[in-house]
Amino acid sequence: MAYSNNNNNKRPARPSRPPFKRRPQQPTQPAVEPTVEIGQRFPLTIKRLGINGEGIGYYKRKITFVPGALPDEVVIAEVTDIEPHYLVAKIHKVREFSPNRVTPRDQYAGLVGGFDLEHMDYQAQLDYKVDVIEQALEKFKPRGFNKFKLLPTIGMNNPYHYRNKAQFPVRMIDDRIAVGMFKIGTHDLVDLPDVATQHPATMKVMRGIRSILETLSIPIYDERADSGILKSIIVRVSEYSGEVQVTFVTISKKFPQLRALLTAIHEKLPQVTSINQNINPEKTSLIWGPETVHLDGKKYITEQINGKFFELSPRAFLQLNPKQTARLYREALDALDLTSADRLVDAYSGIGTLGIAIADKVGEVRGMDTVPEAIADANRNTKLNGITNAEYFVGEAEYLIPNWVADGWIPDAIIVDPPRTGLDEQLRTTILDVKPKKFVYISCNPSTLARDLVDLVKVYNVEYIQSIDMFPQTARVEAIVKFTRKD
Predict the structure, then answer these.
(1) Which has fewest Cβ within 10 Å: 100, 270, 292, 446?
(2) Residue 125: other Cβ atoms inside 10 A
(3) Closest CA to 401 of 330, 343, 340
(4) Calpha distance 83→79 (Å, rounded)
(5) pLDDT, tens digit, for every residue of 377-419?
């Protein structure tokens, strides 16, 4: 069954979701707290899903989060955590199953992260991703929020094998090398021979490297002892070219058996065209360290998005779902409704993928990012595509834009694609001061989007919010907001 709309550049006609109704007020905190103990079990009816995809019910009027439970299910919940204002429980047994429950493809769904909704029918996932935006709007209540037009989520024909990058820790388990993900809430690694959401090439290379490592004497990182050399492996594939880029994360520049490792990769994994080393000496949950060294092959792999080419260095940010990224950019371009005379600001530009994709529709693009390497990549990518009307700058939008305006360069349009933390407060103020006529906000976090809308609707009307499923089988959702300025 197909869940995505057609792939034409113009927005297809599709039914809009009517303005949503407010949810009934949930029960307030009772004066007397229910007596609850860890391990206690009780029947619970699941009312809805929370923002992280967890089931939500009420035990004696106290909100209870149950990962893996679905709306309309009746479960026997077992308490795992007690907090002042909520409970956390696990499913002991399902008494009444939701018609939307399906069997996950991945046997470790629910054990490791990244498969929050794989037990849920895909159409129900798409509906949920509109609902989670509603929840955020109801929480922050930007003016007029209950009249916002929320369009149905754009999904994928095949909501699997879409992730173009795998970032897996490496550890020793029972004297064997394990490459995979940590169990939820722990640092216990689960070796993953296959992941249904990963592009097949990333897993083939990842497992091939694991087999090579088994034959070499490269010290594997021991987290408890903070010893060893190799901590993580990062594999990225280009959907366009099939090139694969591999980065080994080590605790130091020292890399025993490196030459033997490179030789074996050349012989057994010829699709790998770029090999790098990242040095991260810190004992931290962050995968990347500050220094990256090119070891062998090309410095970049090349990806294509909507006819534009992008060279990707190991740390270059690119959306993990190339097919939906192309659709996202077409939807954003459609929402901006640009002319050849417009001046466009591409805020949070990264390596320039969004602005470069739009550049031939406008008079001029100026973008910015705080990461110098990203800006170097962006300006190199403009040259790669023969773009002469786009330039990228190192700095923060909230400072660069006012300087440009003071110099007489006034933007007609702005597109923002911030991280999960949302817009910087000063940037919100800058946008409200400059008031570009055309404005599109791409959000990867409904909560910070709804927070930002509280200010933005003072100057702009929300024309619509279009959700797009960049991460099937997870609770994450991307949203495009089209604004019209109040004149």
Answers:
(1) 270
(2) 26
(3) 343
(4) 11
(5) 999 999 999 999 999 999 999 999 999 999 999 999 999 999 9
Question: 3-state SS string over the chain?
Answer: CCCCCCCCCCCCCCCCECCCCCCCCCCCCCCCCCCCCCCCEEEEECCEECCCCCEEEEECCEEEEECCCCCCCEEEEEEEEECCCCEEEEEEEEEECCCCECCCCCCCECCECCCCCCCECHHHHHHHHHHHHHHHHHHHCCCCHHHCCEEEEECCCCCCCCECEEEEEEEEECCEEEEEEEECCCCCEEECCCCCCECHHHHHHHHHHHHHHHCCCCCECECCCCECCEEEEEEEECCCCCCEEEEEEECCCCCCCHHHHHHHHHHHCCCEEEEEEEECCCCCCCCCCCEEEEEEECCCEEEEECCEEEEECCCCCCCCCHHHHHHHHHHHHHHHCCCCCCEEEEECCCCCHHHHHHHHHCCEEEEEECCHHHHHHHHHHHHHCCCCCEEEEECCHHHHHHHHHHCCCCCCEEEECCCCCCCCHHHHHHHHHHCCCEEEEEECCHHHHHHHHHHHCCCEEEEEEEEECCCCCCCCCEEEEEEEECC
Instruction: Answer yes or no: is 369 a known binding residue.
Output: yes
- Encoded tokens for 387: 């773009």
How many CB atoms are located within 10 Å of the residue 120 CB?
Answer: 23
- Spatial distance between the Cα atoms of 54 and 71, rounded to a whole number of angstroms: 10
Q: Known binder of ligand: residue 417?
A: yes
Decide if 208 contacts 193 (C-beta within 8 A).
Answer: no
- The label of the residue with tokens 């090398």 reads 177
Is 466 marked within a binding site? no
* Residue 74 burial (CB count, 10 A): 17
Which sequence positions are flagged as catalytic?
444
pLDDT in tens, 269-303: 999 999 999 999 998 888 999 999 999 999 999 99
**Annotated binding residue at 424?**
no
Answer for the pair 130, 17: CB distance below 8 angstroms, yes or no.
yes
Angle at 459 between CA 453 and CA 464, to 5 degrees: 55
Give pLDDT tens digits for 61-91: 999 999 999 999 999 999 999 999 999 999 9
**312 neighbors 318 (Cβ within 8 angstroms):** yes
